[in-house]
Amino acid sequence: MRWRGYHSLKEAFAAGSTPSGTELKGYYAVRLVTGILPDIRFFAHRKFFPDDVATKAGGFNEFLGRIRIGNFITEEAQSILGDGQQVLRINYNRPGNPFWLRPLNDELKMLRPGFYLGRGVLRLGPFAINTFYFSVECIP
Fold first, then answer.
1. pLDDT tier at 60 (50, 70, 90 boundaries)?
2. For residue 85, how many other CB atoms are within 10 A of its CB?
3. What is the rounded distance in angstroms from the CA atom of residue 83 to the CA atom of residue 136?
4. How far apart are CA 97 and CA 100, in angstroms?
């Protein structure tokens, strides 16, 4: 999908629907979306969502097919940004994650079945900042 700048990403995200926590299962390709350059997939990045990501095991990010980092759980919730949007939150504040990853929460909206637009939200004390957009697409 091709975007035309930050504003179009923000609009597309707001127009998306909120997926349920049980909707995503298996591996999904992750690409950085800037709105200027083509979508970029760094180090074969993908997310794994188990059958029940609310369990203690949760999901994880994987790079190069073998490096796992960023265990997470998901929950349907209001956006941390306080913009009134209901999102599927990917919460990295988990034991075992590096200290620099724990303040990050990804928020997802479905644009079409199997394709999601996400935003990385960094929480620093009482402040929350939308730091980047990314896409998550089902790998058949």
1. very high
2. 16
3. 22
4. 8
